[in-house]
Amino acid sequence: MTRWPLSEHMQRALALAEEAARAGEVPVGAVVVKDGVVVGEGFNLTRTRHDPTAHAEVEAIRAAAKALGVERLSACDLYVTLEPCAMCAGAISHARIARVYYAASDPKGGAVDHGARVFAQEQCLHAPEVYSGMGEVAAGDLLRGFFRERR
Question: Which of 25, 41, 57, 59 is catalytic?
């Protein structure tokens, strides 16, 4: 894992994760960026919307696709505070996201560098470049604090 400097886009994703926590959602935030500009963002809304697919990445991808008027986001990057799960990795692949930057690893539910390793599978339609560790400490602290309060 490489330690990356905290970019303004990951800072925004972390702010969205904090917003999720305030709403009682698991604190994960995501932004989709094209040419340095945020074109979509989201945070976990699974509990609020009673929708198991309302993960931060999916919300951000949906917003970006709508804003750009396309279903393929091949010129876009995704910044997310937690390693994407298998569902989100599938959505990232289908959207043709160019690069994924994630903060905290998720050995239990992640599917990029852990578990299913979706992008490494032969059946994967598109594998983005993946960079991990940017904002890892802040994202990890936010997640641990959120779950500690609920125990």
Answer: 57
